[in-house]
């Protein structure tokens, strides 16, 4: 079995972060790559995130995983002392691949799951010195600026095409709390079902967390949805995030299904 790099970027990933595996007859058996992201806002406790992707025949998986872990160590060296994780994302039905990662020491405690939550009711007082307003989305520049703010707090980015499609849905809301014109918290809700919306994203700036800001913002949006007969919402959460799990518990969330499993190795 042989390893090689592509001669040019592969699917936007730099060539040095991509490995091809081929057998002794030079027949390609698989490909793997690693992508580094620094998630200081989304995962402040472990900001260095190294995502692995392996698509290969079983006979080449170990070789590719070893190469990617070695490359990950080189990438980590640029961030001495920083905590993080090496992870991948799989369907829960990919039993053989999940077993491959667990046999190589990856934990499968983290996952993306869908929850049904009850939209809060009651007063929604803005934080002191803040005003409640709709997110300005009149121009393409406004829309990209909103996405840039949301994506700072996400592992997987929301794309502009998705936003423009959701803006046409009957339950679409983009709301925020602002101080001197600067956002401290924003939420995006969408959907079209009879009584159920979809909570896509809510974020709170780090220095404003643990003050009930997210709940107050969701309550403000819920008041608008209640007027349309909507009392509950579906949302996707990462079970490894204490903040996300705490939010769904606060909103009486019930798990509907596992979306993906996130096998990972922690470091630091």
Number of domains: 2
Count every beta strand, where a strand is a DSSP E run of 2 or more residues.
13
Q: From the coordinates shown, what is the CATH architecture of the largest domain? A: 3-Layer(aba) Sandwich
Spatial extent as radius of gyration: 21 Å
Major sheet summary line: 7 strands, mixed
| Helix and strand sequence | EEEEHEHEEHHEEEHEHEE
Instruction: Compute the average pLDDT.
Output: 94
How much of the sequence lies in strands comes to: 25-35%
CATH fold-level label of the largest domain: Aminopeptidase
The general outline is elongated
Which structural class do the helices and strands define? alpha+beta
N- to C-terminal distance: 32 Å
Question: What does this entry look like structurally?
Answer:
The chain is an alpha+beta fold and 268 residues long. The chain folds into two domains: 2-87, Aminopeptidase, CATH 3.40.630.30; 120-230, Gcn5-related N-acetyltransferase (GNAT) (Aminopeptidase, 3-Layer(aba) Sandwich). The chain is 26% helix and 33% strand. Strand 2 (18-22) and strand 3 form a beta hairpin.
Question: Which keywords apply here?
Answer:
268 residues; alpha+beta; Aminopeptidase; 2 domains; 7-stranded mixed beta sheet; 6-stranded mixed beta sheet; 6 helices; 13 strands; 26% helix
List the helices and strands and how they pair.
Layout: E1 2-4, E2 18-22, E3 28-38, E4 48-56, H1 58-76, E5 84-87, H2 95-103, E6 111-118, E7 131-134, H3 140-151, H4 160-166, E8 173-179, E9 182-190, E10 196-204, H5 213-226, E11 232-238, H6 242-250, E12 254-261, E13 264-267
Parallel strand pairs: 4-5, 10-11
Antiparallel strand pairs: 1-2, 2-3, 3-4, 5-13, 6-11, 6-12, 7-8, 8-9, 9-10
């Amino acid at each position: 079995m042989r390893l090689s790099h592509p001669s040019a970027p592969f699917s936007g990933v730099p060539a040095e972060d991509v490995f091809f595996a081929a057998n002794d007859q030079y027949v390609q058996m698989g490909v793997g790559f690693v992508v580094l992201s620094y998630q200081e806002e989304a995962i402040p406790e472990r900001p260095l995130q190294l995502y692995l992707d392996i698509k290969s025949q079983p006979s080449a998986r170990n070789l590719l995983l070893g190469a990617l872990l070695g490359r990950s160590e080189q990438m980590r060296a640029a961030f001495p002392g920083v905590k993080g994780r090496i992870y991948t994302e799989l369907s829960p039905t990919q039993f053989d691949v999940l077993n491959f990662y667990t046999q190589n020491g990856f934990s499968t405690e983290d996952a993306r799951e869908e929850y049904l939550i009850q939209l809060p009711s009651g007063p929604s007082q803005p934080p002191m010195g803040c005003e409640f307003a709709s997110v300005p989305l009149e121009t393409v520049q406004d829309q990209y600026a909103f996405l840039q703010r949301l994506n700072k707090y996400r592992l997987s980015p929301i794309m502009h095409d998705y936003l423009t499609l959701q803006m046409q849905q009957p339950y679409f809301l983009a709301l925020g709390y602002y101080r001197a014109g600067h956002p401290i918290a924003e939420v995006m809700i969408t959907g079209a079902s009879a009584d159920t919306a979809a909570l896509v994203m809510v974020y709170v700036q780090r220095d404003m967390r643990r003050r009930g800001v997210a709940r107050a913002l969701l309550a403000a949006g819920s008041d608008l949805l209640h007027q349309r007969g909507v009392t509950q919402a579906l949302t996707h959460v990462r079970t490894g995030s204490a903040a996300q799990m705490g939010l769904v518990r606060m909103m009486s969330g019930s798990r509907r299904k596992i979306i993906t499993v996130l096998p990972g190795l922690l470091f630091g």
